[in-house]
Amino acid sequence: MQRVRLALPCLREHGWDPTVLAIAPDSIEGGCATAAGENLPGRHTRGARVGSVAAADALARVGNLWWRCGRALTRAGEALLAAEHFDLVFLSTTQFSAFQLGPRWRRRFGVPYVLDYQDPWINNYYRRTHTLPPAAGSSSP
Q1: Residue 96 neighbours by CB under 8 Å, 6+ apart
Q2: CA quadruple 43, 22, 24, 33: dihedral positive or negative?
Q3: Over the stretch 6-42, which tens digit does the pLDDT of each residue have?
Q4: What is the dihedral of CA 75, 80, 83, 84, to 10 degrees?
Q5: Judging by DSSP bridges, how do beta strands 46-50 and 19-23 pair with one another?
Q6: What's the pLDDT tens digit per position in 96-117?
Q7: What is the DSSP string of 26-64?
Q8: DSSP state letter for 136
Q9: For domain 2-132, which CATH number applies: 3.30.70, 3.30.1240, 3.40.250, 3.30.750?
Q10: Do residues 115 and 88 touch, judged by C-beta distance below 8 A?
């Protein structure tokens, strides 16, 4: 969110009218809600927030953010793209499964896309939750 939040004023200065589609902070396990994050998209930017599938969280203990929120994010994005014209989709995330939306939306809506790969920020999530990071179980060749 930081990269997008910091880019918004620059995008507007250069004539872009960004719309932000994001996952609601209360759906992000281990996430931290900050004043800056809560203001995204902000009062001068259109946007929408989607939540997770609460039943899947409670019953299946689904830990993967994309599995919990991907369907809602996909539906909300497709509703936006069907309702109006967009010049570009900019996918900026650490949830790399979300990048499959770029080619999907290009085929379906004809909109070009940019993939912004972000490294997850360093925090105490894995230490606090006593879980292994995604690469911890793999061995190097």
Answers
A1: 117
A2: negative
A3: 888 888 889 888 888 887 777 766 555 554 445 554 5
A4: -150
A5: parallel
A6: 889 999 999 999 999 999 998 8
A7: GGSTT----HHHHTSS-TTSEEEEE---HHHHHHH----
A8: G
A9: 3.40.250
A10: no
